[in-house]
Design brief:
Oligomer: heterodimer
Largest sheet of chain A: 7 strands, mixed
Number of domains of chain B: 1
Structural class of chain B: alpha/beta
Largest sheet of chain B: 9 strands, mixed
Shape of chain A: globular
Low-confidence stretches of chain A: 1-5
Helix content of chain B: 10-25%
CATH topology of chain B: Rossmann fold
Strand content of chain B: 15-25%
Mean pLDDT of chain A: 94
CATH superfamily of chain B: Class I glutamine amidotransferase (GATase) domain
Strand order of the largest sheet of chain B: 2-1-3-4-11-10-9-6-7
């Protein structure tokens, strides 16, 4: 074997690879000998939490993953769901948290690049990106630079490759001061019969490498993503990869052109753990082996070792298996697009990975133990119950008046206008964006079809912290409600489970409860989980993030021209509220932002009632009755009503309630939506609501240019819309002023 | 009679299909997407250079694309009086190629900006604005990081007096004001033509404003004007 692999494997070296002594014994047992360094590196990558899901697997099995529309569930590069007319929507969400904290621009940029490759390796043309982001306090160290870098990174990659960034979310909380989260969701379209998978087959078939040359960047990225941060983390900058959206654009066009033909057997992107994970996983799915000659890998630098070649996470690379004899045909397409391509090996019938370098065998490993038989841990966890409700209700003495509270909320980092961010993203390229950022859900048309897709990504980490199971159910319910507000029926879900260190029983308890919460909600809404990602060890010096199970959802509109916007459209339209408002200020934005308190439990959630509200909204938009619809979420009624005035039209409403005005205005009770419609449709709307048992309150009219709210006929808020809009619009730039 | 349109696709173009779609649906042309390494683009009635990030825009925007075979053709074609429309990156490429004056540098805010803007038609003398009265205000999206037009030293007065300023950034009421200009462009210039008026370009994206479903149809106004101008030229010749 080559000299690089003769290094003695010491316990220190094993430890540096993040492999426990028990795991090392398993490796020796599986091989019947000591591994060499290349092999140890491969085990380290594939058995990392990031690649193996060893701590979360036992829980993830709980997800409902099947449904009549599901064409591809979890386990492939991305999920695929039938939308009729022979078309499928392909989507997945992923995290790029650890790299983004170390180097925000490249961390975020390569997060976008990676998730796009997951979609186009399925043969799908990417049509949209969404990016849920979670930051620490704006005043926390480095936070301006992190926000600025991440936003530039997401934009820099997405804008250049020309996929619109149409939605997402931004959430600030001290728990992310030292562990920001960058989640990215990509959505693509493909014809059913052109869906490609990553299952290697056909003994003797050639294995091709296409894309950027391999460099020394990102070595051990997967292991880094499976570890907590400490003081030394900044020194891990070399483990962050560097993205090149221009190369990815060429790779995208080349791959889609290659996949139009029938020369390719299987294809997988080289994501985390690069050549290692792509080659082993393709073999595992097809129950075959491979023999790869690493000397043939296109290299960016001289003197690269097999260890480096196998573990590099250089971006914009793909591994393909072609039918024997057709490799030149495949290679010609890549060359036409100016993309490097090389035949680097062949499929074998050995169920082993044999790696050759400079004529010598440098590694020879059985596939099974590395992939399907990777360790799975049932680590100890504690059941996490809901935090108790606040004893005797929330004392509001000393609280500011309701208008001051509204102004505070809409100027706060979590609720102010996001235009500072979204203006840096190209959301209109490809000319399919019907609703871009700022609506309940983004809406994309499909050229050549009447149908449209609605896209959203949601989670309220404060709710999940207060009650991990119900909070996670809330995330699903809010996503469904967002889709329903634009008029879309929910199809399926992808998730990104961001948690702290799973070796701590209470953190694993959060994960277990959140998975249950998502699963229960998905069963009720009939929305299977088709893809997803788990990001653990989001901790720095023992302090973890809020549990953050981000939910991405795709919905279908039968007639995209009927999509309903969130803003009021016509003077004189009737405004109504669907759903019930209760005394539920626990874990609310009002409590945290206005009163500076984070306590209590999150609002109750009746999933069946939530389903009826959502179905009602879809039905009403299909019938063309609604002028606007907007869900009530963070900030409650008052904030949502303000958001409905974003097109400049004001509202005059009166609320009859037994609740204190402040509680009515800022409670975050679930499953509510504000709708407006022409008075002529009132009867239709009310009858439809009654049929579905949805409580409906007529509130007033779209009127003038002010927001006028009375409670029990007592005016509580009366303010020009433009004044509120200025506060909301200017707030983010003010947060970012100074040291960006 | 059907117009023939060619859309040039450079490596890194990303509005090529959008421009192709607009050429087919809004211009009503028989539209072809043609690779940058094509030396002969045939006898089209219009050549469109689409938006995107040609060659990644890693050097100056458009600086690499100007050296392609397709651009050699475009230069000769423009010399013969052929109609050329550059959008966004296409504008940058035309400036780099010397077919339009000046250069487009980084936005004054130092950030990429994507939003709807208002532009005012300043002259009807080009094929893109023929029949559209000066003063007409159009709303359409911009999406660029380098749209800040700078004139060659001392050249602005001449460019203005020769009626080469095609569009200016304005507010909704059609007035020039601070804040209406999204990128710091000199003299609020959003679009330009050459002296002859056959080479035109703008930073905003008319191809993204051609369908009410997507929020606006003001871009269609320009494609329809182009169709009228080019068809009448066909009839005359």
């Amino acid at each position: 074997m080559a000299s690089t692999s003769t290094l003695e494997i010491t316990p220190e070296l094993v430890d540096e690879h993040g492999i426990t002594p028990e795991e090392y014994e398993r490796i020796r047992a599986a091989l019947g000998r000591e591994p060499n360094l290349v092999e140890l590196g491969i085990f380290s990558a594939l058995w990392s939490e990031h690649c193996s899901y060893k701590s979360s697997k036992v829980f993830l099995r709980e997800f409902p993953t099947k449904g009549p529309r599901v064409l591809q569930g979890p386990g492939e590069n991305a999920g695929a769901v039938d939308i009729g007319e022979g078309l499928a929507v392909v989507f997945k969400m992923e995290s790029h948290n650890h790299p983004s904290f170390i180097e925000p621009y490249q961390g975020a940029a390569t997060g976008v690049g990676g998730i796009l490759r997951d979609v186009f390796t399925m043969g799908a043309r990417p049509i949209a990106l969404l990016d849920p982001l979670f930051f620490g306090r704006p005043e926390a160290p480095r936070m301006h630079a992190l926000v600025d870098g991440v936003v530039r990174g997401v934009g820099g990659y997405g804008n250049c490759i020309g996929i619109p960034t149409v939605g997402g979310s931004v959430f600030f909380h001290p728990a992310y001061d030292q562990n920001i989260l960058v989640n990215v969701m990509a959505v693509g379209l493909v014809k059913h019969d052109r869906i490609f998978r990553a299952k290697a087959s056909g003994i003797g078939n050639p294995v091709l490498y296409a894309g950027s040359k391999t460099g020394r960047d990102g070595i051990h990225g997967a292991s880094m993503a499976s570890d907590s941060f400490d003081e030394g983390s900044a020194e891990r900058r070399p483990t962050v990869q560097v993205g090149d959206p221009f190369v990815e654009k060429l790779l995208l066009e080349a791959v889609l052109e290659v996949l139009e033909g029938d020369a390719v057997v299987a294809i997988q992107d080289m994501g985390a753990a690069g050549l290692t994970s792509s080659s082993f996983e393709m073999c595992a799915r097809g129950d075959v082996g491979m023999r790869l000659d690493l000397s043939k890998v296109p290299m960016r630098e001289t003197g690269m070792t097999p260890y480096e070649l196998m573990l590099s996470e250089s971006q914009e690379r793909m591994l393909l298996v072609a039918h024997a004899g057709r490799e030149e045909e495949v290679a010609a397409v890549f060359r036409k697009w100016g993309v490097d391509v090389a035949v680097i090996g062949e499929v074998t019938g050995t169920s082993r990975m044999t790696l050759v370098f400079g004529g010598e065998v440098v590694a020879d490993l059985p596939i099974g133990p590395l992939v399907d038989e990777a360790p799975v841990y049932t680590r100890p966890f504690v059941t996490i119950d809901s935090k108790p409700a606040i004893e005797g209700g929330i004392a509001l003495d000393g609280a500011p008046d309701d208008l001051t509270a509204l102004k505070t909320l809409i100027a706060s980092p979590n609720l102010c206008s996001r235009s500072w961010i979204t203006e840096q993203y190209d959301w209109s390229v490809r000319t399919d964006t019907v609703f871009g950022p700022g609506h309940d859900a983004a809406v994309m048309r499909i050229k050549g079809s009447r149908k449209g897709l609605a896209l959203t990504a949601d989670v309220n980490p404060r709710f999940v912290m207060a009650d991990p199971q119900r909070g996670a159910s809330h995330a699903v319910a809010e996503a469904v409600l967002n889709l329903a507000c634009v008029g879309a029926e929910p199809l399926a879900l992808t998730d990104c489970l961001n948690f702290g260190n799973p070796e701590r029983p209470e953190i694993l308890g959060q994960l277990a409860a959140a998975v249950k919460g998502i699963s229960v909600a998905c069963s009720v809404f009939e929305t299977p989980v088709v893809s997803g990602n788990v990001s653990l060890y989001n901790e720095t010096e023992g302090s973890g993030i809020l549990p953050t199970p981000t939910v991405g959802m795709v919905g279908l509109l039968e007639d995209v021209s009927r999509a309903v916007p969130s803003a009021f459209r016509s003077e004189g339209d009737v405004i109504a509220l669907f759903g019930e408002t209760k005394d539920e200020l626990g874990a609310s934005a009002y409590l945290a932002t206005v009163l500076g308190r984070e306590e209590g439990t999150c609002p109750g959630l009746d999933l069946l009632a939530a389903k009826e509200v959502s179905r009602l909204l879809v039905e009403l938009s299909r019938d063309g009755f609604l002028s606007s619809a907007h869900d009530l979420s963070e900030g409650g009624f008052a904030v949502s009503l303000f958001e409905c005035t974003s097109a400049g039209r004001g509202a005059e409403v009166n609320v009859q309630t037994a609740l204190l005005p402040t509680i009515f205005l800022y409670s975050e009770s679930a499953s509510r939506a504000l709708v407006s419609f022409p008075a002529a449709h009132s009867r239709n709307v009310l009858e439809a609501a009654k049929r579905r048992g949805v409580a409906t309150t007529l509130l007033g009219r779209v009127a003038g240019e002010s927001l006028r709210i009375s409670v029990n006929q007592e005016p509580v808020i009366d303010v020009p819309v433009s004044e509120l809009r200025d506060i909301s619009q200017s707030a983010f730039a003010k947060l970012m002023e100074g040291n960006a | 009679m059907t117009l023939q349109a060619v859309v040039v696709r450079f490596p890194g173009s990303n509005c090529d299909e959008d421009a192709h779609h607009a050429a087919a649906t809004l211009l009503g042309a028989e539209a072809r997407l043609v690779s940058h390494d094509t030396a002969d683009l045939g006898e089209p009635d219009i050549v469109i250079l689409p938006g995107g990030f040609s060659y990644g825009d890693y050097l100056r925007c458009g600086a690499m694309a100007r050296f392609t075979k397709a651009m050699d053709f475009v230069a000769r074609y423009a010399e013969r009086g052929g109609a050329v429309l550059g959008i966004c990156n296409g504008f940058q490429i035309l400036c780099e190629a010397g077919l339009l004056p000046g250069a487009l540098v980084q936005n004054s805010g130092l950030r990429f900006v994507c939003k709807d803007v208002y532009i005012r038609v300043e002259t009807s003398r080009t094929f893109l604005t023929g029949g559209v009265p000066p003063g007409t205000v159009l709303r359409m999206p911009i999406a660029h990081g380098d749209g800040n037009w700078r004139a060659p030293e001392g050249a602005l007065d001449g460019i203005v007096s020769r009626d080469q300023v095609l569009f200016r950034y304005v507010n909704a009421a059609g007035e020039r004001e601070e804040g209406a200009n999204p990128n710091g462009s000199l003299d609020d210039v959003a679009g330009l033509s050459n002296e002859r008026g056959n080479v035109v370009a703008l930073m905003p994206h008319p191809e993204r404003a051609g369908d009410a479903l997507l929020g606006g149809t003001d871009g269609a106004v320009l494609f329809q004007a182009a169709a009228r101008s080019l068809l009448s030229k066909l009839v005359r010749s």
